[in-house]
Amino acid sequence: MPRVSMADVAAHAGVSAQTVSRVVNGSPRVDPQTRARVEEAMTALGYRIHRAAQALRTGRTRTIGLVVSTLATVGNSRMLQAVCAAAEARDYAIVVVTATADSGIRPAFSRLHDRAVDGAIVLNEATRLVQMAGTTGDMPLVVVDAEPAAHLVTVQTDHADGARAATAHLLAGGAETVHHLAGPADSFAAAERERGWRAALANAGAAVIEPVRGDWGSRSGAAAATALADATAVFAANDQMALGLLHGFADLGRRVPDEVAVVGFDDVPEAVDYLPPLTTVRQDFDALAARAVARLIDLAEGTAARAGASDGDAEVLAAELVVRESSRPVRAV
Amino acid sequence: MPRVSMADVAAHAGVSAQTVSRVVNGSPRVDPQTRARVEEAMTALGYRIHRAAQALRTGRTRTIGLVVSTLATVGNSRMLQAVCAAAEARDYAIVVVTATADSGIRPAFSRLHDRAVDGAIVLNEATRLVQMAGTTGDMPLVVVDAEPAAHLVTVQTDHADGARAATAHLLAGGAETVHHLAGPADSFAAAERERGWRAALANAGAAVIEPVRGDWGSRSGAAAATALADATAVFAANDQMALGLLHGFADLGRRVPDEVAVVGFDDVPEAVDYLPPLTTVRQDFDALAARAVARLIDLAEGTAARAGASDGDAEVLAAELVVRESSRPVRAV
DNA sequence: AACCGGGGTGTTATCGTCAACACACCGAGT
DNA sequence: ACTCGGTGTGTTGACGATAACACCCCGGTT
Fold first, then answer.
1. β-strands B320-322, B280-282 pairing
2. What angle do CA B187, A71, B291 make, to 5 degrees?
């Protein structure tokens, strides 16, 4: 049995296809009786709107592209899930495209352009967004965790403040100063976390030791342990690197938290079961995703043109310190 | 500037739109000179095919739906990434829909049906697939990690064999028997892993202690530690639960691996940095995803009708034991 | 000379939906 | 009686791509 079209429904209800369209789109210009008859016909025939045809006619697909560098980080995959949920609630679908470092974002946007998505959300690692200014054409865009800039709508966690809180917490615990295991140099989130760490140290008048740099992965955290062997407190830029650090310190015989305190960032679900359970900074990925989707849909549907409200518009969501055993005060109270 | 259509390209190249279509679709019935002229016009104008129009005319969207219960498990998010990569290589796009336990799969498939996807891949937790036999209509379907059944194409890791290898490894290490921290009762993968564990015990004539059941999350693993306090070897159904178990054992003062050996499943990237580094069973998610996508595209494009080769067709990929410190032999060699 | 076959190309109609316009009807105001 | 505004509905014509068919031009048969 072939697809049921508006014409079929129209015939069954004894009206024109246009009236069916009006019912589907909730136009007020339909007699309640007629509307009821059409709706009855729709359920009777099992009518489903043909999105491709709708897209062809209206130019809008009710589809959002999600550009993601990798899903290997817990943060990204949680964002993806949250974005899906938020989009589904608005009757939008998500198509995922990957943009790796070597492929660049151009092919990703090319695919999205083909698919005529109504807009795109870019996750993370967006420092190199500058490259693509021209490429995206006029596609509405919301970037997560990127440098706020003119003509760019961004949504981000307050990485700097979270990092500041983590560092202050470690200082309050009695550490002379706090070492930092930073993320990749080209990551905005990593830069922000580093900035917050520096600010907290400056605020307390503590010495700044140049950070060790990792790649977000736990292996790089383990590798950093020797370089950080004389630290009494370390703020790691994410939980995975913190985990590696815990491992590295264990191998070196450095006891956590008795000899060295460790704090991470993200609050991955497993952090509570690390050994010892990890103090970390929790991001509200659900809220972040909901805001990103809401902003994008506003842009895509909005009559408020992009010249107006969208200029360099940045939204920042708070992060929350979660204290666990890995940062029990170094010198007992 | 509005969208560039085939007609525009055709005008620019001095041919008809149909000829442009033939060039785009690689028809052999085009003079090489004409083809060159058309291709030149396409790049000159920046032509991009309009998928919605193509979909309307051809009835196919070059889009694959991915139905996923959650992305909280590492396995699922790695599968998602791998599926995206495999699909992109074939010029297909992925749209992700979630089907939670309460929402059921019906709305998910409804969304996919609207979107006119060419087929769908269902990830995991598919025991309740039976519910949807009628719902999917004739949409081509590949299910990952589900009970093979007639009229169902499945792709799966050899969970049972991986579990068997893990259990045999623990027995070889000197354990009297091996306890099992199982996954949720409604999960196919969990059932298979349990089956492999039982088989290995039976094979060795070891006693079977009824498994403790978790929910894949690390917290459930930690909670299971007390119930498993007298074990000398535990096979956990995934790495996250194994991590929780390591935490729980540490709290109980049970030393791993000296007093109790632990093995997980999945080989998440962090497993190597758990304390102690976790022995586990590695799944090849990339291969799994590539096979799933390949099978689905065959189904969707295949002239080989579904009555033929697709009947109860199951593909099984090997898993590999990765030995680390958490299972160092209980009784020294 | 008439015919054939096939490569290369154009024409036409169509997929399902919706914007724009047309129209028919009705009660209210002049 | 006659316009008027509003309401409910139908008609027409795109949107962009392509399947099906029609056509022309050629060299090679009969």
1. antiparallel
2. 60
**Is A116 within 8 Å of B50 when comparing Cβ atoms?**
yes
The arithmetic mean of pLDDT across residues A216-229, rounded, is: 96
Of all residues in chain B, the percent with pLDDT exceeding 70 is 89
- Token digits of residue A35: 């509307």
Give A248→chain B minimum CA distance, Å: 8
pTM higher than the cut 0.90: no
pLDDT in tens, B134-162: 455 668 889 899 888 777 888 999 999 99
Buried b (16+ CB within 10 A) or exposed e, B217-235: bbbbbbbbbeebeebbbbb
Q: Which amino acid is present at B245?
A: L
- Terminal Cα distance for chain B, rounded: 76
Q: Which strand (E) or helix (H) includes residue A142?
A: strand A141-144
**Strands of the sheet with B212-213, listed across from one edge:** B212-213, B179-182, B233-236, B261-263
What span, in angstroms and rounded, lies between the C-alpha atoms of A144 and A150? 15
* Cα–Cα distance measured from residue A195 to residue A159, given in angstroms and rounded to the nearest whole number: 9
* A51: helix, strand or coil: helix
**Residue A57 CB closer than 7 angstroms to strand C?**
yes
How near does any CA of chain A get to the CA of B221, in Å?
9
Structure tokens at A316: 């920042």
As a whole number of Å, the end-to-end CA separation of chain A is 76
Residue B31 (CA) to nucleotide C6 (C1'), in angstroms, measures 14
Identify from B71, B110, B124 which residue to disrupt to test chain A contact, counting A C-beta atoms within 10 A and taking the largest count. B71
Identity of the residue numbered A236: A
User: Residue A30 CB closer than 7 angstroms to strand C?
Assistant: no
Q: In angstroms, what is the C-alpha Rg of chain A? A: 25
Instruction: Report yes or no: A322 and A281 within 8 Å, Cβ to Cβ.
Output: yes
Q: CA of B76: which chain A residue's CA is closest?
A: A77
Query: B6-13 and B32-45 helices cross at what angle (nearest 10)?
Result: 120
pLDDT of residue B158: 97
Q: How far is it, in rounded angstroms, from Cα A152 to Cα B288?
A: 38
Per-residue pLDDT reduced to its tens digit, B209-221: 999 999 999 999 9
pLDDT at A298 over 50: yes
Say if CB B242 and CB B181 are below 8 A apart. yes
The token duo for A31 is 């007699």
